[in-house]
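Deliverable D2.4 — example input (structure tokens):
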């Protein structure tokens, strides 16, 4: 499973939410609208990914990141980074 890292402690996500006029609750609903399964992501997950403080999380699943970026009409790479490659796995 691939996890992505949110950029800037989630500030780009919060900025995109502000531009779109979305709260965490409405963003969670918007992810349901863009998810082909209709499930989207929960309000709690939006708060963890977009939030700050001790409950915030730096990583999220690729699916979660994709749904957030799509719901915000923002490029995935503008909101999230791929984790760096470990040199332990690079053939020398």
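Example output (designed residues):
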């Amino acid at each position: 499973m691939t996890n992505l890292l949110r950029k800037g402690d989630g500030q780009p996500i919060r900025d995109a939410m502000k531009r779109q006029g979305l709260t965490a609750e409405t963003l969670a609903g918007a992810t349901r609208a863009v998810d082909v399964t209709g499930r989207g992501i929960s309000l709690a997950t939006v708060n963890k990914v977009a939030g700050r403080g001790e409950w915030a999380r730096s990583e999220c699943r690729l699916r979660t990141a994709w749904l957030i970026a799509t719901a915000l009409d923002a490029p995935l790479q503008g909101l999230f980074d791929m984790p760096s490659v470990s040199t332990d796995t690079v053939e020398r």
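Helices lie at 11-20, 24-34, 43-50, 62-71, 76-79.
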